[in-house]
Amino acid sequence: MNHARVHVRSASPADSRALAGLCGELGYPSSTTQVTDRLRLLDDPERTLLVAEVGGGLVGFIDVHVQRVIEADPYAEVGGLVVSARHRGEGLGAALLAAAAEWGRGRGLTVMWIRANLARDGVHDFYPAVGCRPVKDQRVYEYPL
Predict the structure, then answer these.
(1) Mind listing the pLDDT tens digit of every residue in the chain (145 residues)?
(2) What are the distances in angstroms from CA 115 to CA 63, 120, 139?
(3) CATH architecture of the domain with range 3-129
(4) Which of 8, 77, 126, 141 could anchor a disulfide with 99, C-beta 3.0 to 4.6 Å?
(5) Would you state the torsion angle of the CA atoms of residues 84, 49, 127, 101, taken in this order, to the nearest 10 degrees?
(6) Domain boundaries, the chain
(7) Residue 79 class from Cβ within 10 Å (0-12 exposed, 13-18 middle, 19+ buried)?
């Protein structure tokens, strides 16, 4: 991968349409209107949404935030990471992960958690290849409100 052609930057509301498409690729179909509304998260100083551009087109994103819980010191947590299927294997995921790690380090955090669905093809090879280590398996439950 020619990293010179990858540009990682903060997301903006103008990215809503491309982000909606990427949410769909991640398995969470979303309309441009829904994503535009969700981009209020950009106002949260303990969260960042970074995007990867190649050739001027938005082809990936990572959503990361500071997680604060009573049982542990604050840590960074990835809410979502996706690279367009057309650009997977080109180093964009690693570039986004590295940028998110730099963001976390800049806030004094020492670890970043990433949750990955067991059914996702490729990610369980990707994460160890970029230096991640598995720390636990878990089941996620939904409690209807």
Answers:
(1) 555 589 999 999 999 999 999 999 988 999 999 999 999 999 999 999 999 999 999 999 999 999 999 999 999 999 999 999 999 999 999 999 999 999 999 999 999 999 988 888 788 889 999 999 999 888 889 999 9
(2) 12, 11, 11
(3) 3-Layer(aba) Sandwich (3.40)
(4) 8
(5) 140
(6) 3-129
(7) middle
